[in-house]
Amino acid sequence: MRLLLVEDDEMIAEPVLESLRREGYAIDWARDGREAELSLGHGVYDLVLLDLGLPKKDGIDVLNGYRNRGGEAPIIILTARDAVTDRIGGLDAGADDYLVKPFDLDELAARARALLRRRVGQKQPVYTHGDLALDPASHTVTLAGTTVPLVPREFALLHILIEEPTRVFTKAELEDRLYGWGEEVGSNTIEVHVHSLRRKLGAEQIVTVRGVGYRLKRCE
């Protein structure tokens, strides 16, 4: 999943970036309101973490503009503004959740998982497809009840596929959702991850749709 963090304070941003990258997310960082608007214009984000007190443009204005342009990604406001009126204003402007600084990183990750599940209509915390099961909270994958160890990129790729198991994802879509700004992506990087997943899960689990991309196998 690809996230956008909008935060001008480096001391807050760095731990958030590190924590969520360990969770397997690709995450970009915008440092002011104008940069956030430009980033959101690309339409590639699954979740946005938005500070309110931003340089160049206030976070509420960024939020209003994004929703007015039809932006649908869930948004968690992260702010030191803890007055009830501020919380109400953020939620009324289109935010989906609200965390007051300082916040616990584990709680932020749990709230992010909940919103991402809701975005794809997944009510249960564990994704299942046939004999595959993926638990985002514990970062575990099981195949027929046996735990399969995956590195973070493999886990993230499987997470994308299992959320929408009948959808065919192009290589470009997978690259966009797995990698953030400035990360080098080799021409065969996705193929390497797919090959590794097939080796661990079974070659039949991931289907290549020739000329299009990849999806999970169909369940009988």
Question: Could you provide a short overview of the structure?
Answer:
40% of the residues lie in helices and 21% in strands. It is an alpha/beta fold.
Q: Which percent range fits the helix content? A: 40-55%
Quote the average pLDDT. Answer: 88
What's the CATH topology label of the largest domain? Rossmann fold
CATH level 1 name of the largest domain: Alpha Beta
How many beta strands in the DSSP annotation? 12
**Tertiary shape:** elongated
End-to-end separation in angstroms reads 27 Å
By CATH, the superfamily of the largest domain comes out as Response regulator
What Rg do the Cα atoms give?
18 Å
Instruction: Please state how the strands of the largest beta sheet are arranged side by side.
Output: 2-1-3-4-5
Protein name: Response regulator
Keywords: Cytoplasm, DNA-binding, Phosphoprotein, Transcription, Transcription regulation, Two-component regulatory system
GO molecular function: phosphorelay response regulator activity; transcription cis-regulatory region binding
Main location: cytoplasm
